[in-house]
């Protein structure tokens, strides 16, 4: 006689439902400035041109215009045929080789082109693997140069309140120590000296800078007093010219950079300009320091040339991580006169990566374009005009404190903190991607964005902010 238990058909448990990419991510992958279990708002399923295809928590998809250029780097958009081909061609040759004792065509060509594009006098190039590291190298170079000059006490830097220069330890030290993102590490990072945040400046539609002359004079007086008092222990001055990015998208008059150049010269300091976010046309000049050069020339001075310049982000068009530090021949000569045989004491494993350098060269080709007028100039001028028009209605919202435009940068500043998740979702539902922070909803679109793309971005931001904050 058979057992009823044995005769009963077996039923295997149902397989678990497949988890979405967002579910797999949450609790596993850390995201920038977030707890490990925060997860992401959306998953990227595709990217082409200026558009991202996003998948939301409900599994639905959204095609959105990327208003962030992937944190200001993807200036030519995604899957660009020229950049794709440059990567393929280099892969067919070799993708990486150590840079110690060796060199290669992509790196040398890139260095030549950077020297040609940069302000006159910057003749030597150190290729780094990220923007933060390029600033680290700049700080190390300044310290080594001061030591070569016999100035061994000069081991601190002067930086601006509101500045941001990276997340590595030395760069954290020159970021704003209180209102920045690294206050928690204030007891362990190098203790630097800080100048007041420069007064706000605004670039008018006619191309002239508007600012409070009295506020600038007051800032200059404080700056000169601090620099004179601390000069014997200072190695250099560090700043983001004209636009402080992650420190609040704060634009300030070009005269500030000119004053810092004068102060550096008066006290034997090296002027380090961090153009990682502002370089390659974003502010309406190829390098933001050119605004200060124009200010200097208008007053009978010469072209403003930093001692050290750092670039990154848009260098490869957002394809691969790469940055560079450039310095003058005078700085290099001072280093050579010191110990260590003139060696700059830094050497990343992926320094001068051939694949990244090859794509960077192709990106610079796209920036310049054919003809006498560079391609980026017309593109950024169109962004400037478009952003002024489409973001203007935001100034009528009660929740909005300020709307400002500088080249390919548009900023809507609220009176209080942005509800980041809520505003992001509202904007995505309207066909755009932004990443607000603090009290800011801002855009830095790819240069290749069309007028229609900019209209979509502007309407999404204005409507999204109005929906969430009123």
From TrEMBL:
PANTHER family: ADENOSYLMETHIONINE-8-AMINO-7-OXONONANOATE AMINOTRANSFERASE. GO terms for cellular component: cytoplasm. Pathway: Cofactor biosynthesis; biotin biosynthesis; 7,8-diaminononanoate from 8-amino-7-oxononanoate (SAM route): step 1/1. The modification N6-(pyridoxal phosphate)lysine is found at residue 313. Homodimer. Its EC number is 2.6.1.62. Catalyzes the transfer of the alpha-amino group from S-adenosyl-L-methionine (SAM) to 7-keto-8-aminopelargonic acid (KAPA) to form 7,8-diaminopelargonic acid (DAPA). It is the only aminotransferase known to utilize SAM as an amino donor. One of its GO terms (molecular function) is adenosylmethionine-8-amino-7-oxononanoate transaminase activity. Pfam families: Aminotran_3. It catalyses: (8S)-8-amino-7-oxononanoate + S-adenosyl-L-methionine = S-adenosyl-4-methylsulfanyl-2-oxobutanoate + (7R,8S)-7,8-diammoniononanoate. This is Adenosylmethionine-8-amino-7-oxononanoate aminotransferase. HAMAP family: BioA. It comes from Citricoccus muralis. Pyridoxal 5'-phosphate binds at residues 131-132, 274, 348-349. Substrate binds at residues 71, 164, 313, 347, 435. Belongs to the class-III pyridoxal-phosphate-dependent aminotransferase family. BioA subfamily. It is found in: Cytoplasm. Keywords: Aminotransferase, Biotin biosynthesis, Cytoplasm, Pyridoxal phosphate, S-adenosyl-L-methionine, Transferase.
């Amino acid at each position: 006689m058979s057992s009823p238990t044995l005769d009963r058909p077996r039923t295997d448990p149902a397989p678990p439902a497949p988890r979405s990419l967002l579910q797999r991510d949450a609790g596993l992958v850390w995201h920038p400035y977030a707890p490990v279990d925060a997860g992401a708002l959306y998953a990227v399923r595709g990217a082409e041109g200026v558009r991202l295809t996003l998948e939301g928590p409900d599994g639905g998809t959204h095609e959105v215009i990327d208003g962030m250029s992937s944190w200001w780097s993807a200036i030519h958009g995604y899957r660009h045929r020229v950049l794709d081909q440059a990567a393929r061609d280099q892969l067919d040759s070799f993708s990486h080789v150590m840079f110690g004792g060796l060199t290669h065509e992509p790196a040398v060509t890139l260095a030549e082109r950077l020297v040609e594009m940069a302000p006159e006098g910057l003749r030597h190039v150190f290729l780094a693997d990220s923007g933060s590291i390029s600033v680290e190298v700049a700080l190390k170079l300044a310290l080594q140069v001061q030591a070569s000059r016999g100035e061994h006490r000069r081991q601190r830097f002067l930086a601006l309140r509101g500045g941001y220069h990276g997340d590595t330890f030395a760069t954290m030290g020159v970021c704003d120590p209180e209102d920045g993102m690294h206050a928690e590490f204030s007891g362990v990072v190098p203790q630097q000296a800080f100048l007041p945040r420069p007064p706000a400046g605004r670039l008018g539609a006619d191309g002239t800078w508007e600012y409070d002359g009295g506020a600038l004079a007051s800032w200059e007086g404080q700056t000169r007093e601090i620099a004179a008092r601390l000069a014997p222990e200072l190695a250099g001055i560090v700043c983001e010219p004209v636009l402080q990015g992650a420190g609040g998208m704060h634009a300030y008059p070009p005269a500030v950079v000119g004053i810092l150049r004068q102060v550096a010269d008066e006290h034997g300091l090296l002027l380090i300009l961090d153009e990682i976010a502002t370089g390659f046309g974003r502010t309406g000049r190829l390098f933001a320091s050119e605004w200060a050069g124009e200010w200097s020339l208008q007053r009978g001075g010469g072209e403003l040339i930093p001692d050290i310049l750092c670039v990154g982000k848009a260098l490869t068009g957002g394809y691969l991580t790469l940055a560079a530090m450039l310095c003058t021949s005078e700085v290099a000569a001072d280093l050579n006169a010191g110990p260590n045989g003139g060696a700059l004491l830094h050497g990343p494993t992926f320094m001068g990566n051939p694949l990244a350098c090859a794509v960077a060269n192709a990106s610079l080709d796209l920036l310049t374009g054919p003809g006498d007028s560079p391609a980026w100039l017309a593109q950024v001028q169109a962004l400037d005009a478009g952003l002024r028009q489409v973001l203007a209605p935001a100034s009528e919202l009660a929740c909005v404190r300020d709307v400002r435009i500088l080249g390919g940068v548009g900023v809507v500043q609220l009176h209080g903190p942005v509800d980041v998740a809520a505003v992001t979702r509202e904007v995505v539902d309207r066909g755009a991607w932004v990443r607000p922070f603090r009290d800011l909803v801002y855009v830095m679109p790819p240069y290749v964005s069309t007028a229609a793309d900019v209209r979509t971005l502007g309407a999404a931001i204005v409507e999204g902010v109005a929906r969430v904050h009123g």
